[in-house]
Amino acid sequence: LDEVLTFTFNDADLLEESIIKYQSKIDESIYQVLSNFSEAKRLEILALVNETRVRLSLIASLENTKKIEEFLDEFKNHEELLAQLAKKGDDAFKLEILKITSSHYVYGILSQGLSSKESKRKALSIIDSVDDKVIFVANSMDDILKAEFLMKYRLERYNFVMVLLSIGDKRLQNMLSKYFYKVNGEEIFLESGFDKDYFIYDAQNDALPRVLKFGVELECVGEAYAALLSYNQKPLRRYKIKEEGSLTEGVEFTSDILEYKNEDLRTIYEVCDFLEQNGLYVNDECGGHIHFSSNYLVSYADWMMLFYLYSKLEKVLFLISNGENSIPRYGIHEYSKPISEKLTMLLPEFLQARSAEEVIKIVQGNTKRKSFALNLNNIGVIFDTIEFRMPNGSIDPNIIIENILLFGNLLALARKLARGPLEKVTHDLLMKLDSAKDMEEKLEIFLQLAFKCEENREIFRKRYRANSKLYDEDYLLIDNSFDDFTLLDTKMHI
Prior knowledge:
With 494 residues, the chain is an alpha+beta fold. Helix content is 52%, strand content 6%. Strands 2-3-1-4-6-5 form a six-stranded antiparallel β-sheet. The longest helix has 23 residues. The termini are far apart.
């Protein structure tokens, strides 16, 4: 019936008769065909129609906003039609609409439609809820009106920050953040305020080579997430913000490509400081993923050595990839499940392959994107990265950098062992790892192979000792099948 009414009726009299006759079966799509009638004819039909949906569509189709105002109360619970009305008329008409709605969708349209500053000030006096006022101001007002609003109302931190982030003038932003500090005794941390001196983590001899590029994804939650998502600029240099769909009120901060140097490491301190200062935090569902440039491993031997080391060490890595007294997060089986058993099962296919590209495709063909702790499905697409997904979320910059060192040095070790020649001590340690069954023994061999600095080794020993006490053997559902993956099976000559 809607299709007939919308697309095939050219006879206005027949259309009028059908509208009246079938009014109980017609939905809001009737609005599309009302242009066939003059305003006077629509008002005549209106007098004969009692079906709410058709009545409101008829009223909404009128251009005479004074006539529409006579029926405005009937639109209270009809958001889509109110949204159509919000695009009509002058400021006075829009303010009348504002009086009967609490819809943020309609607020958004009205806020963009009001033409004068005085009308926008009047709108604020009509809107009751402070939260709604904040949304209205952030989306519609110029910087001066926003500043006026922030100084007139005593806002809580979250609402103040939401408006503050929408201000384009950085100098004005800084002045207002200082005003908030003066009134409330709380600091609001903005990009241009990054003048702190940070003690940058010193990896000493374990710093990653510059050629091994990396990036981080920091998931977090908090009330400020909505303000950050509505903010159309980067609040932090070299970090993008997007909604994190796996979390409630969640956002993800994603870095640009970084190198292991103080200038880039500093940005990790800055972003963590920003998150903490603005009330964002991690819960037991947040992840802290780390990406590395996949072109660091080039040959078939490089990749086979990575698979071998990872399979031997995966259970250990789950225990040492988080700060002390932490266990793998909730949902780990959905977003970062163990992959070592699958790598072991794929070994016969790996041995048939002849190139790095072939073994990567074998793994990609047998794993879903973003399901496993080691993710290769970004290789060959935009990011072209090796992703380690097992770390929990953290806004402690030192924990994040320690994890970058952990996984970066695992990759560096794979490349070093694959390319040789090996010193005797390295060769002997690798042979011990090949036969080791005890997890603590595997950890110690790995630390001796991958790290030169004893202080860095001790960080991961402490993590292991603290986290293994909390660890439930069934938590990750990892059996010992990966212990069957040996150097002999890889047919690599070490």
